[in-house]
Design brief:
Largest sheet: 9 strands, mixed
Helix content: 25-40%
Number of strands: 13
Oligomer: single chain
Bound molecules: uridine 5'-triphosphate
Distance between the termini: 57 Å
């Protein structure tokens, strides 16, 4: 069975990015001119996903509007012969079949994913966090789908992080099956570097089997009094194989301010229209630093 559906959780409060997220979704924060969640949807589409369920919530209407048509704007662009922009705006509304469901209370990532159960039914599905972009040659969801087709098990994207920074992440441990693949038996949130089971951090992309829903039903509230997806994995991995796949690509978590800044700089340097002038500006700025 292949993976045709994706779920994008985007209902969280985004407290790390206040005040910007007081009245607008953090998933709409743009990297230059493109909202973060548009990169995420594009990755799903580039991985062959045809159907996307976005977990939305209070204050997240802008996401729905973004993926909808805007006839007045289209007419204006057409009149003023801005064809490129016109096509771009049309493309956003036609990227995939996008559905929305509202998470009624913000009870954690595990709870958000549980809302997808009627939509994904008995199929395996991809999960892409709405505030995380992965820059890679092969779309990272595609990499995970390839691993799913090989192992027929839930797949977690992981990335190697510096040993002294493991205490910032959810870290996995288990039996290595190859250079990039591990059968996971341990999940530890923010471990002490001295006792961490590995330096592989969970990276915001997953392929899940429908058994995750049973595991979520049995997951008690954890950290922050929320249903944590990592806790559900602990239950799931006792019942069936859970695989960690070290992805090729660079992850950007735009939900924290410093990473958001770094992402903006790196993406601007990659954009033809900005790279030269912005690069010069950065050089001058850095030269002026003490
Ligand atoms: P985060 O934990 O990074 O998001 O969840 P958050 O809770 O909004 O952030 P802070 O800690 O308050 O700053 C990762 C993704 O999961 C979604 C978020 O919207 C984000 O895209 N999420 C999180 C939900 O959809 N529902 C939740 O209950 C929690």
């Amino acid at each position: 069975m292949t993976v045709k559906k994706a779920v994008i959780p985007a209902a969280g409060f985004g407290t790390r990015f206040l005040p910007a997220t007081k009245a607008q979704p953090k998933e709409m924060l743009p990297i230059i001119d493109t909202p973060t969640i548009q990169y995420v949807v594009q990755e799903a589409v580039d991985s062959g996903i045809e159907d996307i369920l976005i977990i939305s919530g209070k204050g997240k209407r802008a996401i729905e509007d973004h993926f909808d048509r805007n006839p007045e704007l289209e007419a204006r662009l057409e009149e003023s012969e801005k064809e490129k922009l016109f096509n771009e705006m049309r493309h956003i509304a036609d990227m995939a079949n996008i559905h929305f469901i509202r998470q009624k209370e913000i009870n954690g990532l595990g709870d958000a994913i549980y809302y997808a159960r009627y939509h994904t039914g008995n199929e395996p599905f991809a999960v892409l966090l709405g505030d995380t972009i992965v820059d890679s040659v092969i779309p990272v969801t595609q990499q995970l789908i390839d691993a799913f087709e090989q192992y027929n098990a839930s797949i977690l994207a992981v990335e190697k992080v510096p040993k002294d920074k493991v205490s910032r992440y959810g870290i996995v441990g288990g039996k290595r099956l190859s250079d990039t693949i591990m059968e996971v038996s341990e999940f530890v949130e923010k471990p002490d570097p001295a006792t961490a089971p590995s330096d592989l951090a969970i990276a915001g992309r997953y392929i899940l089997t429908p058994e995750i829903y049973t595991a979520l039903e049995q997951t008690p509230k954890g950290k922050n009094n929320e249903i944590q997806l990592t806790d559900a994995f602990k239950i799931l991995s006792k019942r069936e194989k859970v695989i960690a796949d070290t992805i090729e690509g660079k992850r950007y978590d735009i939900g924290n301010k410093l990473d958001f800044l770094k992402t903006t700089v790196e993406f601007a340097l990659k954009r033809k229209e900005f790279s030269e002038e912005f690069g010069e500006f950065l050089k001058e700025t850095v030269a002026g630093l003490k």
